[in-house]
Amino acid sequence: MYRSRIFVGMMIMFALGVLLVTPGAKAANSVWEYKTTVTFSQPFEIPGDQTLPAGTYVFEVLPGIGMQEMVQISDADQTHVYATLHTIPSYRVYVADKTVMNFEETGAGLPVAIRNWYHPGQKGGHEFAY
Q1: 85 exposed, middle or buried (CB, 10 Å; 0-12, 13-18, 19+)?
Q2: What is the DSSP secondary-structure string of 66-115?
Q3: I want to staple 43 with a disulfide (CB 3.0 to 4.6 A). Which of 59, 73, 111, 120 is the partner?
């Protein structure tokens, strides 16, 4: 009986120690750090049948549910959010040292549609679902 109390006490102390240390831990490549400012020279389409005019926008990863991640698109000073979108994990073979965005061609005279966004130094990125 005495040993089981000691064991339970040690387990509680261990759990408290983990709880106290964990909030300070931070991964070097945490998705929470992924934010990119991009300037577009022409209008572009985003999911939701929305076309954004040429200009500067901030793309930022937000907490997601399960394997899906959410990306928020806002204006340059982040005072107006244009969209918060579910994205699908996307992977590439080669890693670039800069932000890469891929676009899909649309019909003649229509703006290009953003398809993927990849972070510098990462194979994984975000595919926008239309």
Answers
A1: buried
A2: TT-EEEEEEETTSSSEEEEEEEEEEE-SS--SS-EEEEE--STTSPEEEE
A3: 111
Give the mean pLDDT of 2-13.
Answer: 43
pLDDT, the chain, mean: 79
Amino acid (1-letter code) at residue 11: M
Contacts of 71 (CB under 8 A, 6+ apart): 59, 60, 61, 62, 84, 85, 87, 117, 126, 128
Tokens of 45: 């389409």
Q: Sign of dihedral through CA atoms 106, 111, 117, 119?
A: positive
**Is the per-residue pLDDT at 96 higher than 90?**
yes
Tokens of 84: 């918060």
- The token duo for 19 is 């709880």
Q: What CA–CA distance (Å, rounded) separates 75 from 32?
A: 19
DSSP 23: G
